[in-house]
Every structure is written in C-alpha cells, then in structure tokens.
Amino acid sequence: MRTELVTTLKRQAAELLADLERDREPILITQRGVPSAYLVDVETYEAMQQRIRLLEGIARGEKAVEDGRTLSHASAKKRMARWLRSARRSGCDRGLHRTRQP
C-alpha cells in the first residue's frame, strides 16, 4: 500500500486523486510519521459501505437467532406480506413488484 505525507496531499491533491481513480488502491496519509487517514476512491468506499451494511445485517440476524427471536416460515411469510402491502400503499416499494410465473 502506498503511503504519503500530509504535506504531499496538500501540494499534490489533484495528482493523488488521479492516481486513486486510475489504480483503485488506497493511499495511507501520515502526519508527523503517524497514520492519520486513508484516501480511497468513491467506488471502493461505496462498496466497503455496502459490505459493512451486509455484515451488520448478518450479525443482527445471528444475534436474533442466539436470543431466540425467530419466526416460523408461515409467520415470516405473513409478516412480509403485510409489510409489502404497507410499502405499496405508501409508495415505498421501490420496484419490489412480484413477477408472475407463466
């Protein structure tokens, strides 16, 4: 991984950003010899945030199972149907339409 001084960031920000876009490799920024920040391109950052949300969801699910907060398939299906009806009424379904099977 590439490491740069904060003074380099100040003087060559445009060049560092171009490097990020081209290489998609994070750059560690140090200040007084101590790591202080990472520069990452937008696409990488957004992918990392998406992965974090997914992992947090998995952790919540594991915790729910551990705590005994589970539903039967029938109860989950009924709850999901209510949620979908509510979302459609409020216009929040965002394309979650059921496709018909031939």
Could you explain the architecture of this structure?
The chain is an alpha+beta fold and 102 residues long. It folds into 2 domains: 2-40, YefM-like fold (3-Layer(aba) Sandwich), CATH 3.40.1620; 44-90. Helices cover 59% and strands 15% of the residues. The chain is built from 4 helices and 3 strands; from the N terminus they run βααββαα. The chain has helices spanning 6-11, 13-23, 42-66, 73-90, and strands at 2-5, 27-31, 34-39. It has a 3-stranded mixed β-sheet. The mean pLDDT is 90.
Return the string of H and E elements.
EHHEEHH
Q: Report the radius of gyration as a whole number of Å.
A: 23 Å
- In whole angstroms, how far apart are the ends? 52 Å
Main sheet attributes: strand count, strand direction, barrel closure:
3 strands, mixed
Low-confidence stretches: none
- Strand element count: 3
Count of discrete alpha- or pi-helical segments spanning 4 or more residues: 4
* 3D shape: elongated
The fraction of residues assigned to DSSP E strands is: 5-15%
Structural class based on helices, strands and sheet pairing: alpha+beta
Arrangement of strands in the largest sheet: 1-2-3
Mean pLDDT: 90
Give the total of domains. 2
Query: Percentage of helical residues?
Result: 55-70%
Task: List the defining traits of the structure above.
102 residues, alpha+beta, YefM-like fold, three-stranded mixed β-sheet, 4 helices, 3 strands
